[in-house]
Write a structure and sequence with these properties.
The two termini are about 30 Å apart. The strands form 2 sheets. A 5-stranded antiparallel β-sheet has the order 1-2-3-4-5, with helices on both faces. Strands 6, 7, 8 and 9 form a 4-stranded antiparallel β-sheet that branches. The chain has a single domain, classed as 3-Layer(aba) Sandwich (Aminopeptidase), CATH 3.40.630. The chain is globular and about 45 Å long. It is α+β, with helices and mostly antiparallel strands and about 180 residues long.
Length: about 180
């Protein structure tokens, strides 16, 4: 499967040695602030298994993310089909999640640009979406830096979160292939 390289990052398939650091990332309450809950080791391992299954099923997916110069695992970035029904589906989503020590270095934006380029150039996707809770201002800033556009009319209540949940309301950003 494809490995994607940027100036500072490697987006690659998951390895067994990623499981521990990924579980630590998913157990961090600050990293998971805009998710319904942290994940324990079993939940984190199941996520890696789903990501790997996605590569086999779709030919693309959510990559492990490492710093090229050091080999340090810093999180995930990639593309995934949206698995719930919403006004904008079917769609392919771009995603990222980084360890706190990797925040503020431009890694999410750099990985996001690589994912968008891969989705449009290698996969020929007509559109890529990103969404997050209205409270996740850091991810929304990355979406804007990636050149994604936001129309408030597209915002939605996430169907997997119950009414009244603090994270239910989501913003939707869209990206189209370069003209």
């Amino acid at each position: 499967m494809t490995t994607v390289r940027t100036e500072r990052l490697i987006l690659r398939r998951w390895r067994e040695r990623d499981r521990g650091p990924f579980a630590a990332l998913n157990a961090d309450p600050q990293v998971m602030e805009h998710f319904p809950a942290t994940l324990d080791r079993a939940g984190s391992d199941a996520a890696i298994d789903r990501y790997e299954t996605g590569f086999e099923a779709n030919g693309y997916g959510i990559w492990a993310l490492e710093v090229a110069a050091t080999g340090e695992f810093i999180g995930l970035a990639g593309l995934s089909p949206v698995t719930f029904t919403a006004p904008f589906t079917p769609a392919v989503e771009i995603a990222w999640r980084l360890v706190r020590t990797a925040w503020g270095h431009g890694y999410a934006t750099e990985a996001g640009r690589a994912c968008l380029a891969y989705g449009f150039e290698a996969l020929g996707l007509p559109e890529i979406v990103a969404f997050t809770s209205t409270t996740n201002l850091r991810s929304q800033a990355v979406m804007r830096r990636l050149g994604m556009t936001h129309d408030p009319a597209d915002d939605f209540d996430h169907p997997r979160l119950p009414p009244g949940h603090r994270l239910r309301r989501h913003v939707l950003y869209r990206a189209a292939p370069p003209a």
